[in-house]
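Tutorial, part two.
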Amino acid sequence: MFEATSATIPQPVPQVVPNATQAIVLNNFMKLPTNFHKEGNARKVVLDSHGTNYKQWEASIDRTLMHAFCVDETFVNNKGCWSSLTSQQAASIRGLLKHTICDSHDDNIEAGELEKPEKSLII
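Running the prediction step on this input gives:
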């Protein structure tokens, strides 16, 4: 009565999550921004008290943020990047900035005093 059919039941195709690697990279940055920064920058540039090494410091921060947020062009000088941050992302960036500046600038980015981390980049 019942005939065996040779037709196979189609298997569901696993959905590839677009940007899965990007999500992992960003998640790693969010968890430990300072470690993420240190792993990606051979020179551990700390902004000195007079800001004489600002360009080198900014470049190292920019490299880290470009990698973390998977952007091809500057992150630091792109207002669109800053405006699209979630509060958690902004907090991770504040933490990174806080740990890459000397103590004399530290008061400028104490938690809660500076809501927008991009303002830390103006000395």
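The two ends are 84 Å apart (CA to CA). In part three we will examine how such features are distributed along the chain.
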